[in-house]
Design a protein that fits this description.
It is a single chain. By secondary structure, the chain is an alpha+beta fold. Helices cover 13% and strands 15% of the residues. It has 3 helices and 5 strands. The chain has a 5-stranded mixed β-sheet. A hairpin with a 3-residue loop joins strand 1 and strand 2 (48-52). The termini are far apart.
Length: 155
């Protein structure tokens, strides 16, 4: 299903209860439990690790607060995102190698977008929609074909 591109109208917002890069009025609200204690996220293949402190969320301004996309922006892990993190594309496709059970359930809208991503697996998620609850450490793979090398070279 094609969805119109939505400009990130709320860019720069830092309130934890709000979607940071904007919102997508065509999808249902994502239900998730934010983390309440520190945990670690490791990004593959780079091996970059961040200790997530719930008191410092959000780290970036795209995706749901505390999402894999938000966390990746905190350490410049190179996770691409063309729609501003509003579940309107599949560019932030990741594979949650460890800790998937601590993440919120995928919505129908997320699964629809994932259908457009190459190389999906049973552990595939959109980084903008996937929020770990902090009960376990997470290992996330950014598929090689999905990395934005131009952004990586800038950092």
């Amino acid at each position: 299903m094609l969805r119109p591109y939505l400009a990130p109208a709320a860019a720069g917002r830092k309130n934890q209860g709000e979607i940071m890069g904007g919102s997508n009025p065509y999808i249902e609200e994502v239900k998730y439990k934010p983390a309440t204690k520190k945990y670690k996220v490791t990004f593959l293949p780079s091996g970059k690790t961040i200790e997530v402190d719930p008191e410092k969320i959000p780290y970036g301004h795209n995706g749901l607060p505390g999402s894999i996309l938000d966390i990746s922006e905190g350490i410049k892990a190179g996770l691409d995102h063309a729609c501003g993190g509003v579940c309107a594309c599949s560019t932030c496709h990741v594979i949650v190698r460890e800790g998937l059970e601590s993440c919120n359930e995928a919505t129908d809208a997320e699964l629809d977008e994932l259908d457009e991503a190459p190389g999906i697996t049973p552990k595939s998620r959109l980084g903008c929609q996937t929020v770990p609850d902090g009960t376990t450490d997470i290992v996330v793979e950014i598929p090689e074909w999905n990395k934005n090398y131009a952004k990586e070279l800038d950092h």
